[in-house]
Amino acid sequence: MKSLNLKERLAQQQAAQLYRRPVCLESPQGVQIRIQGREYLSFASNDYLGLANHPDVVAALQQGAATWGVGGGAAHLVTGHLLPHQQLEEALAHWTGRERALLFSSGYQANLAVISALLGSGDTLLHDRLNHASLLDAGRLSGARFSRYLHNDMDSLSTRLSRARGNTLIATDGVFSMDGDLAPLPDICRLAQQQDAWVMVDDAHGLGVLGKTGAGSLELFNLSSQEVPVLMGTLGKALGTSGAFIAGSHELIEALIQFARPYIYSTSSSPALACATLESLRIVQKEHWRRQHLQQLIALFRQGAQTLGLQLMPSTTAIQPILIGDSAQAMRLAQQLQEHDLWITAIRPPTVPNSSARLRITLSAAHSTAHIERLLETLANILPKEQE
Ligand code: PMP
What we know:
This protein has about 400 residues and is of the alpha/beta class. The chain is about 45% helix and about 15% strand. It has 15 helices and 13 strands. The chain is globular.
């Protein structure tokens, strides 16, 4: 049999110190996790509101499975669109202030679906340089010309907009996943309007966390469906379940149903999961204290980290990375934190730009102020020693 060079490629990955392995949690997701029999305080999930293991969400999943079964059983356009899917789409549209919403099994799939359905060769896709990998891959799949503007740099975007051909879509994360900062959405929308371009916001990390009702970056900046015609939200982060949706006009959703191949040719997600997400959405909308508590923890952490002289990013969100720079040093620090029973992920290139390895600390409404104090104390113990 002809070799596919897997052995060589794996060896190269290892030699470049880029080899990755999933860690296996022996506990539910949460702030207290168990890995290889050891308990850790975790600052490493995207469960920003502490809903992934919330008893009411678990009960809704159980009840949903008892009523609707486990499997969707078919693609949405065949017989896989069940009443809980329909109810969840309507609830998500209502929450985000859009006419309609359409469910997907993951955010990666939703991004591939919407961009490949909207754009083709002859069109232009403009990306922030730090956009999520799924948006970049979606651009490749669409066949559109694409160009990356400098991160949050409106001059760079404006130059690229003036050179754009065909239908033009500007795609940006609402909250950048590895930095935690916000996109300047009102400025992006203004430029888009001047050049007759569309804006798409991937709000995976803003949804649930930002805005008065948690409806995310667009609620925070009060941006309408005209200003941001395409919203992508994920359900596996603040909402604590999994899956994603696109929200927008009736026409946009109808176009996706007709043209988005990742939607058309994929089995719907579990109807029981839709029941669970409906419950978590109810909690997100009702329990404002989760967002308020999270904001207090963010302020407490930033204040403490600044006092320690740590290099923070300009983030007001639950993602609070500490910039380290060197990949090996970031890995070493993550290891030392583990020795102190803290679990924090070191993020290295190619996920982030070269020489910008970091400890990606994420905070959750399920953390307490004592957890943040313990984190700061441990960082204070470890970091000066590392820099000596
Ligand atoms: N967009 C962003 C900004 C993300 O951070 C992620 C998940 N890491 C995705 C899209 C993909 O979403 P999912 O995990 O649901 O596939």
